[in-house]
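Handoff note, outgoing to incoming analyst
You'll be picking up this chain. Sequence as last confirmed:
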Amino acid sequence: MSVYFAQRRKNGLIKIGYSRSVPNRMSALGAKLIGAVHGNRSTEIKIHERFAHLRVRGEWFRPTKELLDHIQQEAQNHKPDQESIQAAIRIPDSLLERIDKLAERISRDSFPLTRADVHRRALEMGMAQLELGEKKLKKR
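Most recent structure output, in case you need it:
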């Protein structure tokens, strides 16, 4: 698991994010990986807090000397793992709307979840239900 630093080509902003599949994330962001550290969501949150004064919006930060020096000194010796592969699937808009509303409710009530987190969890839960159904069919 890795916390990555990705820089947009267009405006130079730096995204500090967390991913199990950094190469796929870079592709989705259209940004260049400029560093990574081993870590999880709590690591990401600590880095966000450290550079909160540079936050532009969400997980995007101004590329100041302070942040770039941190990346140069702390985030050059970790090669991100690619633990998962993203698959392109067509999800109906009505289902995406339900997922977004659910993510918003969960985030408001407990802890922040991204749309991707909710997609991943829905897929996991759906697979568990399918596997359970398969076992029941085999018992017949």
